[in-house]
Design a protein that fits this description.
Oligomer: heterodimer
Structural class of chain B: mainly alpha
Largest sheet of chain B: none
Helix content of chain A: 25-40%
Strand order of the largest sheet of chain A: 8-9-10-1-11-19-12
Low-confidence stretches of chain A: 1-31
Distance between the termini of chain B: 28 Å
Number of strands of chain A: 21
Largest interface: A-B, 56 and 50 residues
Order of helices and strands of chain B: HHHHHHHHHHHHH
Radius of gyration of chain B: 24 Å
């Protein structure tokens, strides 16, 4: 099971949800290109660098991390520091990393074999003890990564370089999960020594990644440098410094003036400025990120699937993509984004099933009819909650509002301060006064089950966001089968059977998928440009052309 | 130092203590009353279960009566423990320390610009004839109408993007580099106040120019420049000083706008961000710090006025 962006919000990493919020743009007064992009032109990574570069400055659009602990924040500085057991490739496949192999020995026994040449930055060798410790650290109920471990029985060190994970049932999602931050490898000795200070500006982190943590000056920058002993070969960049620039206009200025070398998740509103730059280029890559809104309680009108279907039919997706994403996205038929399975064994099966789903369409007559059939009291306004200051979500809410108006539904927008907003995700009382919550979410590691489990299963089986009380025994059984079936084709069959049932119910009204955006100065190359940046060392091959 | 000044000083210290106490109560209550549960900030990075939320609330005394929470906090601040940030999990002092220098430099830089150009243009307007007066009047009207963030956008566009003379963002390292980086932010903050000070200076100087003692001095044949320095400007300065304290203290608060626009990690931007994330310990400490600065700077201005014009320090009693 993957932790989603929404989980990150639960985790209180609120800025997370609004990672595009930097674009409280003042730069959107210029005429903006919103031409659609040919999706076959998306690139997952730039060619590996060949030349050394002394110093690269990277802007963190999501702002200063609250911690560098991989279990605590989703900052893009983390993947270059702390590696996961397996590596996610830019095209979202999973391959060997710190672990040479991680495979099922039998249906309930998973064996992880480690490389023998991996050392932490302080020179101590990586051992199975460190790995078992790191996994156990995420296997507590309060961990954002806990869902990955629900079927784990015990984690055992079976050799200096081998960890064996025993399961209560087979788990088809586990291997992909440990390629994400659920499998982040930390130094046991260091974590124990630092205690509460681990991950903070004063404590720092101790990992095995291609860049070494040097210094974090609060409010200013995080400095990292090439790890000369990296098992995969030292990076070509001497010093990689992260600066925190959340303001969209400041970011665009800093990038276009060449004061910052690159950034991910640059605001789509600055597309024109970036496209016309002669000092750098805007690169578009595939992503699992999507915009959606879903119901927050089981009693209101929003819990009625017909209301969600009606709103979906009233929203023009092309207009959404033009207005909110400035053309940098495409329509998406259900909440599980196609790139999530791009690197999986049963990719073709998933793709065929996805293409068989009804694509979102605009049909106001049918929408009005659905509202009428539902018999809901249309005089009562429906409230959509969004985080304050997130321009794209503010526009999203306005689009939902005008769509509602066209079919006789009154929509009110409730813009909330970050903590107030994140409270929605763990406090049922905070959800009572609202009907929908609009979010941007992404999947940080391959896998199709993450969203489905969270939105559709009963709460005790992992349906953390199943707030509308969705309950369909067949869907529950199929999703459980998909998870506990190790054969990729059979697992896919079970998921697809469930999807055929749940997709029309629109537990999330998916509005569009958003492309991964990267701006990089000319002369530099080698970065990952797909959504894989969240959980793989994206700057490993960074350097000059 | 005469008795008046000493009395003023003692009075100011008493005022400072009282103001700080009242401000700390107001700040503490205001922060608690704003919407949103601080548990969200505290639970950063974890999936909070009801039990865990209870534990966090207990650990941070969030369920204690407000007055107990207040005493706990004040007790910490008085003993040098500023508390731990809910979001960053580090000492508030460690979060504030690296940012304080940037903000102080920015405010001082801005104040210097205001003193030179604001007071300078006001004197110019008052003494260099109707043409200069008209020109300054038009200039200050424009300056007063320009919000800080608009000035910031203009400055970035012209001086950083088109001409490339200044960096577009960041605070720089080392004094010279920092001063260079903070030039545009300081100008953007200063514009409004330059206009304001120009008007005040002009008014004060014109008032003095037409006063009896100046006429007398002129009649006695004292050189023009000396008349201006000793009689006009010195007597006009209390009026200017009176607003200086408030202005400089206010700059600490409004610096957030320039810090945001120029991507500078200072106190103002930290306060804005902490308030949004409900990072109570950070908000409380910075707010209190702003109040201290405010009170201290005003006291300094008042004392300076008392030194220049001892009469003003005499207690005024109602008859």
């Amino acid at each position: 099971m993957r932790t989603t962006r929404i989980t990150a919000a639960v985790a209180g990493a609120v800025a997370a949800l609004v990672f595009l919020s930097g674009c409280t743009g003042r730069d959107d007064t210029s005429p903006v290109t919103s031409q659609p992009v040919d999706s076959s032109k998306l690139v997952s990574s730039l060619p590996a660098a060949t030349g050394e570069v002394d110093e690269v400055t990277w802007a963190l659009v999501e702002g200063e991390p609250s911690t560098l602990d991989p279990a605590g924040d989703y900052s893009l500085a983390i993947p270059n520091l702390c590696e996961n057991l397996l590596q996610i490739s830019p095209d979202f496949g999973v391959g060997p990393g710190v672990a040479t192999s991680a495979e099922w020995a039998d249906p309930v026994t998973f064996v992880i074999d480690l490389r023998d040449d991996v050392t932490f930055w302080d020179g101590t060798p990586l051992t199975a003890e460190d790995v078992a410790f790191s996994l156990e650290r995420n296997r507590v109920e309060t961990s954002a990564w806990f869902p990955a471990f629900v079927l784990v029985d015990t984690i055992e060190v079976t050799d200096d370089l081998q960890v064996t994970v025993h399961f209560t049932a087979p788990d088809s999602t586990f291997r992909d999960a440990i390629a994400g931050a659920a499998g982040a490898v930390l130094s046991k000795a260091f974590v124990e020594q630092e205690g509460d200070a681990f991950g903070t500006a004063s404590g720092g982190v101790m990992c095995t990644g291609p860049y070494v943590f040097d210094e974090w000056t609060p409010g200013s920058e995080i400095v990292t440098s090439a790890n000369p002993d990296y098992w995969g070969g030292a990076p070509l960049v001497g010093t990689l410094t992260y600066e925190f620039i959340t303001d969209g206009a400041t970011l665009a200025n800093a990038l276009l003036a060449g004061e910052v070398d690159g950034a991910f998740n640059v605001p789509p509103a600055s597309r024109d400025n970036f496209a016309s730059s002669d000092s750098g280029r805007l690169v578009l890559g595939p992503s699992t990120a999507s915009y959606s809104f879903g119901p927050t309680n089981s009693t209101g009108a929003a819990a009625d699937p017909r209301i969600r279907q009606a709103l979906s039919l009233a929203i023009d997706r092309e207009q959404f993509i033009t207005t909110v994403l400035h053309g940098l996205g495409e329509p998406q038929s259900t909440f599980t984004p196609p790139f999530a399975w791009a690197g999986m064994d049963a990719a073709d099966q998933y793709t065929d099933a996805y293409e068989a789903l009804a694509a979102p369409e605009l049909d106001l007559e049918q929408a009005k009819q659905l509202v009428e059939e539902s018999g809901v009291d249309t005089s009562k306004p429906l409230v959509v909650a969004i985080p304050a200051g997130a321009k794209e979500l503010s526009q999203t809410a306005a689009i939902i509002q005008s769509a509602g108006a066209q079919i006789g539904l009154t929509i009110e927008i409730d813009e909330r301060q970050p903590t107030d907003f994140s409270q929605i995700f763990f406090d049922p009382a905070a959800r009572e006064s609202i009907d929908f919550v609009a979010t941007v979410g992404y999947l940080d590691a391959p896998g199709v089950l993450g969203y489905a489990q969270q939105f559709l299963l009963p709460a005790e089986l992992g349906g953390f966001f199943n707030w509308s009380g969705y309950a369909n025994d067949e869907v529950t059984a199929d999703l459980q089968t998909a998870r506990t079936t190790l054969d990729p084709a059979a697992s896919a069959d079970a998921f697809i059977a469930a999807q055929e049932i749940f997709a029309p119910d629109q537990l999330q009204v998916t509005l569009a998928s958003a492309y991964q955006t990267t701006f990089l100065q000319n002369g530099l190359t080698g970065v990952t440009t797909s959504v894989a940046v969240y959980s793989s060392p994206w700057a490993l091959h960074l350097g000059s052309e | 130092m005469n008795a008046g000044v000493v009395r003023t000083l003692a009075g100011k210290l008493g005022e400072l203590a009282l103001t700080l106490f009242l401000a700390s109560v107001v700040i503490f209550s205001a922060v608690l009353l704003t919407p949103g549960d601080p548990v969200a900030a505290l639970a950063g990075g974890i999936r909070p279960t009801p039990e865990l939320i209870e534990a966090i609330r207990a650990q941070h005394h969030l369920d204690d009566p407000v007055w107990q929470q207040y005493l706990h906090w004040v007790g910490g601040v008085l003993t040098g423990d500023l508390g731990t940030s809910f979001v960053y999990k580090t000492d508030v002092a460690a979060l504030i320390a690296p940012r304080i220098g940037v903000t102080v430099l920015l405010v001082v830089y801005t104040a210097v610009l205001i003193a030179i150009f604001g007071i300078g243009s006001g004197v110019l307007a008052a003494t260099r004839g109707p043409k200069a007066d008209r020109a300054v009047l038009i200039g200050t009207s424009i300056g007063m109408a320009m919000p800080t963030f608009v000035v910031a956008i203009l400055l970035i566009w012209v001086f950083a993007r088109v001409l490339g003379w200044f960096p577009v963002y960041g605070a720089g390292d080392g004094f010279a580099d920092m001063a260079y980086h903070l030039t545009l932010p300081a100008i953007s903050l200063a514009v409004l106040y330059i206009a304001f000070f120009s008007r005040i200076t002009r008014g004060a100087v014109v008032g003095q120019l037409h006063s009896e003692h100046v006429d007398t001095a002129r009649v006695r044949g004292i050189p023009r420049s000396q008349v201006f320095r000793r009689h006009v400007f010195l007597n006009a300065s209390p009026q200017i000083l009176a607003v200086s304290g408030v202005t400089v203290a206010g700059l600490f608060a409004t610096s957030a706008i320039a810090e945001q626009a120029f991507g500078i990690g200072g106190l103002g931007s930290l306060l804005t961000e902490a308030a949004a994330r409900k990072d109570l310990p950070v908000v409380q400490v910075i707010s209190l710090l702003l109040v201290v600065v405010f009170v201290v700077l005003n006291a300094v201005a008042d004392i300076a006025i008392a030194v220049i014009d001892p009469d003003s320090a005499k207690p005024r009693r109602n008859a």
